[in-house]
Amino acid sequence: MFTTPPVIASIYTAIILLTGACIGYGLGQLAAWPIVAQLRDQLADAAWQLAHDPLTGIYNRHGLRTAHAAFAAAHPAQPVVAILIDLDGFKEINDEHGHGVGDEVLIEIAKRLTPIAAFFGGDVARHSGDEYAALFPVRQRGIAQIADALLAAIATPVKIQADTGPVVVALTASIGLAVVDSSDPFEDVALHRADIAMYHAKRSGRNQHTLYTPGMTMPASDTRRGPRLRDLHHQHSEAEAA
Questions:
Q1: Structural domain of residue 37, as residue ranges?
Q2: CA torsion, points 4, 190, 226, 50, in degrees to nearest 10?
Q3: 205 and 105: one domain?
Q4: Each residue of 164-217: pLDDT tens digit?
Q5: How many CB atoms neighbour CB 135 within 10 A?
């Protein structure tokens, strides 16, 4: 079941009410404490589901937004680099080997990106489909060094044990980077600029990274794949909010 903020709020409210009841009635109501503990566990599980991708276990888009908000609150006006990573040719992997192999590839790529994010002090998420997003503080290490590490990790062939036998999958990625202020809106500025840069990397031959520069615009639509899953999710969220 997909956990929504209203569900989490309901669990949290129940915990507060039961905790208050236990305190109010004193020791005679100690039997209610296991229920409180169970609800707290449910709340923790619901919060985890809301912020993490169920397939790979890393952050989802909501989790990365939350990480950005926390960083911006703790480090106002500090530059950060937003990164979008699009796997080149992933559709062909699904078409040739099936979605089961495709899912295993997504899981393996997430495992490879996670230690890189930790090493450079950032966070990584599965943004949507075969696309990952990351957020890093701008520190002494160069931005290109981070992008090169991500490209190298993805380019290492992935070995999958499929139903028909072992499969070795080789793939690359197109990466877009954008340096913004931590207080800039994450979706509308940071990831939007990284998105533009990522499509320039894809148009320039793939398997490379491109840094957003002022005045850079989205490539012509004929170089793009059409509506993306994350765009459809964004439109759906806006419709629900309305």
A1: 5-51
A2: -10
A3: yes
A4: 889 999 999 999 999 999 999 999 999 999 999 999 999 999 999 999 999 999
A5: 24
Q: How many domains does the chain fold into?
A: 2
CA atoms within 13 A on the CB side of 123: 22
Is 227 inside a domain boundary? yes
DSSP the chain: ----HHHHHHHHHHHHHHHHHHHHHGGGGGGGHHHHHHHHHHHHHHHHHHHB-TTT-SB-HHHHHHHHHHHHHHSTT-EEEEEEEEEETHHHHHHHH-HHHHHHHHHHHHHHHHHHHHHTT-EEEEEETTEEEEEEE--SS-HHHHHHHHHHHHHSPEEEEETTEEEEE--EEEEEEEEEETTS-IIIIIIHHHHHHHHHHHHTTSSEEEE--TT--PPPGGGS-SS-HHHHHHHHHHHHH-
What are the CA-CA distances from residue 146 to residues 130, 132, 172 (Å)?
A: 20, 14, 16
R_g (Cα) of the chain, nearest Å: 21
Nearest CA-CA partner of 85 in 16, 166, 147: 147
Sequence-distant (≥ 6) Cβ neighbours of residue 66 within 8 angstroms: 51
pTM attached to this predicted model: 0.77
